[in-house]
Design brief:
Strands 1, 2, 3, 4, 5, 6, 7, 8, 9 and 10 form a 10-stranded mixed β-sheet that branches. Strand 1, helix 3 and strand 2 form a beta-alpha-beta unit. The radius of gyration is 29 Å and the shape is globular. The chain has 2 domains: about 150 residues, 3-Layer(aba) Sandwich (D-Maltodextrin-Binding Protein, domain 2), CATH 3.40.190.10; about 140 residues, D-Maltodextrin-Binding Protein, domain 2. It is about 40% helix and about 20% strand. Helix 10 packs across helix 12. It has about 350 residues and is of the alpha/beta class. The longest helix is centred in the first third of the chain and has 24 residues.
């Protein structure tokens, strides 16, 4: 017969065992909401770098203003991070990304495709294996402007003419000089003035240029065309469908766009022209969370950015992943798929 003391001890042991088992059972019940919160907390804990470098242009270029706007938005969202601006251009920024000199860089879909193929401006440097895209910033299209009463009705009519397509290193100049070859014209057949857009406008109005060309969004182009058409009747030139198809086949960073005849007084027909995307690129090995944070910050602050440059009103989750020509960084893709 068990003593009272032994029975009491046995009962206490059974009660203790039941308590332990009950506790273990409760710990196995996982709260899915808590897991989600923990995952978010892990993302929030990510330490942004002390410094980010964005490639743009020097202060005289329009991309510098864009980079400053980005800098202000990112530094406000992440006070511990300083954003510096690298003075480059569409080609130089891609080279600097590939070499690890900068984190992000503004360029175009045209140049991004050339970089990964080792063509165009990258023939000497060769294929850039460590570049990818992050987000489109805006779409632009090519405008080729001549006087309405001139005998220039096609690029084939440019032999012996005086033109300007921007500065010598501008993507528009490179594109134009390559494209006119399809019309039997070379840059040796032309007199080219390498000047900024505002000077092109002044020279054209004075009759010092037979044609000038520039890339811009429609809203910006409308202002420029209104200015040069104030005292001069003008017309827009375009490409044939066949030439445009060949351009896109050669560089998927291009797209076909049509300028309506109704957009310019006196224009008698629609114009087929070349479009591309101005974009933000980065290196493939840039930290995924860093890219995610930058993309989400810029898109979520698109209204603020558009106040500094109306072209940035283009920024949205729907627009920014389209027409970039080459692959998108995993960190950006993660944001776009949310």
């Amino acid at each position: 017969m068990l003593s009272v003391k032994r029975v009491s001890s046995l009962c206490m042991a059974i009660i203790l065992l039941m308590f332990v088992l009950s506790g273990c059972g409760n710990t196995q019940q996982v709260d899915k909401n808590k897991i989600s919160d923990q995952a978010q907390a892990t993302s929030d804990v990510y330490q942004m770098p002390d410094r980010i470098i964005i490639g743009a242009t020097d202060p005289d270029g329009s991309w510098y203003t864009i980079a400053v706007a980005m800098k202000n938005v990112i530094e406000k969202a992440y006070p511990e991070t300083r954003v510096d601006i690298y003075y480059g251009d569409a080609t130089d920024n891609l080279n600097a990304i590939n070499e690890g000199k900068i984190d992000f860089g503004i360029t175009t879909s045209e140049k991004a495709v050339e970089a990964v193929k080792g063509k165009g401006d990258f023939v000497q440097t060769g294929i850039l294996n460590n570049v990818c895209t992050v987000m489109g910033l805006w779409k632009e299209q090519l405008y080729m402007v001549a006087s309405a009463d001139s005998q220039i009705n096609s690029l084939a009519d440019l032999k012996g003419k005086t033109i300007s397509t921007g500065l010598q290193q501008d993507p528009t100049t490179t594109f134009f000089n390559n494209t006119i070859k399809a019309y039997g014209i070379t840059d040796a057949d032309l007199t080219e003035n390498y000047v900024v857009l505002s000077d092109m406008q002044k020279m054209f109005k004075k009759g010092e240029l037979d044609l000038f060309a520039f890339r811009a969004t429609q809203s910006v182009a409308d202002t420029i065309l209104d200015d040069v058409a104030d005292k001069n009747s003008i017309k827009l030139l375009g490409f044939s469908s066949d030439i445009m198809a060949r351009l896109i086949n050669n560089n998927p960073g291009y797209f076909k766009t049509v300028i309506s005849a109704s957009s310019l007084e006196g224009q008698t027909e629609d114009v087929i022209t070349q479009g591309d995307v101005v974009l933000l690129a980065c290196s493939k090995d840039l930290d995924q969370q860093l890219v995610y944070n930058v993309v989400s910050t810029l898109i979520k602050n698109s209204h603020t950015l558009a106040q500094s440059d109306e072209d940035l009103s283009y920024l949205s989750k729907e627009n920014c992943s389209k027409g970039l020509g080459i692959g998108i960084h995993n960190g950006a893709t993660l944001f776009y798929k949310e």
